[in-house]
């Protein structure tokens, strides 16, 4: 396992981060022995970071980790999240405190390495998204997250870079956060580089540039686009996060991509991971898994490393030709 700097925190993060989300669902849906065995194998392979959230399985992902972590001999970084109820903006600090204390209780930890805002970001606060003013104002959301850092319940704070791109970039430029969960995959590479107009996708242009300029660690999420990239089999948990995208539209793009790439560089999931690893400015790739074999597949991809230049040129040609 190789490691990369985690922004300017002084930490090194494994190229692969084990994601505990609902789409993969292993920490939610598998039996206890399978969960434990898989997590321990991931750590033995050199993965040094696990990412979770209270919303993953209504706390089940965190609770599962809380059962496993006492069996871990070495230090592992754990990141979790808080989602702000935008109908209760008069008690922001209370929301953050209650959420984090609940997470720590389930995890069996005294603190987490990273506490991340889970809401998308917008120009104005809406039912789901948080606006710039509520994030950056005195006693606002970032102040509340930073208070958790100040009292020793989290080492660092971060955001989820979903929503309005211009607003996300403003938050990154505030120099208030250590990390950002960044949407990037074969079907939408725009956070790192903008594909030609022939390849339609939600535009995240400038996010990774801004992360790098301000020392923020970009954590690659949705590398499989909720599984659409990895396989044509559907489990019902696929849910595109980007405006205008559907499972059907993502499937069309994935087929166009793999009709050209073929199988010479590994499975579809492995190509997706290796494509992300080909981007040196990404700090890590957060990947989910549904079954133990998916871990072996991901580790083999990491060991293979970045895609060769010829494969990257083929991918760029697919973007240029469009769908």
Structure description:
The protein is of the alpha/beta class. The chain has one domain: NADP-dependent oxidoreductase domain (TIM Barrel, Alpha-Beta Barrel). It has twelve helices and twelve strands. The chain has helices at residues 26-29, 32-44, 60-68, 92-107, 132-136, 141-150, 165-173, 207-213, 247-261, 268-277, 292-304, 309-321; strands at 3-5, 12-14, 16-19, 49-51, 77-82, 112-117, 121-122, 130-131, 154-161, 179-183, 217-221, 284-287. It has an eight-stranded parallel barrel, surrounded by seven helices. A two-stranded antiparallel sheet has the order 1-2. The longest helix is centred in the N-terminal third of the chain and has 16 residues, at 92-107. The mean pLDDT is 95.
Architecture, according to CATH? Alpha-Beta Barrel
What shape does the CA trace take? Answer: globular
Identify the CATH class: Alpha Beta
Order of helices and strands: EEEHHEHEHEEEHHEHEHEHHEHH
CATH topology-level fold name: TIM Barrel
Secondary structure: number of strands: 12
Give helix % range.
25-40%
Give the strand line-up of the largest sheet: 3-4-5-6-9-10-11-12
What percentage of amino acids are in beta strands? Answer: 15-25%
Overall mean pLDDT: 95
How does the major sheet shape up? 8 strands, parallel, barrel
Radius of gyration of CA atoms, rounded to a whole number: 19 Å
Number of domain modules: 1
Structural class: alpha/beta
Q: Low-confidence stretches at least 5 residues in length (pLDDT < 50)? A: none
- DSSP helix count? 12
Give the distance, in angstroms, between the N- and C-terminal Cα atoms: 36 Å
């Amino acid at each position: 396992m190789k490691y990369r700097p985690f922004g300017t925190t002084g930490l090194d993060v494994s190229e692969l981060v084990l994601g505990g989300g609902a789409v993969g669902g292993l920490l939610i849906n598998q039996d206890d022995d399978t969960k434990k065995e898989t997590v321990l194998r991931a750590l033995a392979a050199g993965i040094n970071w696990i990412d979770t959230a209270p919303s993953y399985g209504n706390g089940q992902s965190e609770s599962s980790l809380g059962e496993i972590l006492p069996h871990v001999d070495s230090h592992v970084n754990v990141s979790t999240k808080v989602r702000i109820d935008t109908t209760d903006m008069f008690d922001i600090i209370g929301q953050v405190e209650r959420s984090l204390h609940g997470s720590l209780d389930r995890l069996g930890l005294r603190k987490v390495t990273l506490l991340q805002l889970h809401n998308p970001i917008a120009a104005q606060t809406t039912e789901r998204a948080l606006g710039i003013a509520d994030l950056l104002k005195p006693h606002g959301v970032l102040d509340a997250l930073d208070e958790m850092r100040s009292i020793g319940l989290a080492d660092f704070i971060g955001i989820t870079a979903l929503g309005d791109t211009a607003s996300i970039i403003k938050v990154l430029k505030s120099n208030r956060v250590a990390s950002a969960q960044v949407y990037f995959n074969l079907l939408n590479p725009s956070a790192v580089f903008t594909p030609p107009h022939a390849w339609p996708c939600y535009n995240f242009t400038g996010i990774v540039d801004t992360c790098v300029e301000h020392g923020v660690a970009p954590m690659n999420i949705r590398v499989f686009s909720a599984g659409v990239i990895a396989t044509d089999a559907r489990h019902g948990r696929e849910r595109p996060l980007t405006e205008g995208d559907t499972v059907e539209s993502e499937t069309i793009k994935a087929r166009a991509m793999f009709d050209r790439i073929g199988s010479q560089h590994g499975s579809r999931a492995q190509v997706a991971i290796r494509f992300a690893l080909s981007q040196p400015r990404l700090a890590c790739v957060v990947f989910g898994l549904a079954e133990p074999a998916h871990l072996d597949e991901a580790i083999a991809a990491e060991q293979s490393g970045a895609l060769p230049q010829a494969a990257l040129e083929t991918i760029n040609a697919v973007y240029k030709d469009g769908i």
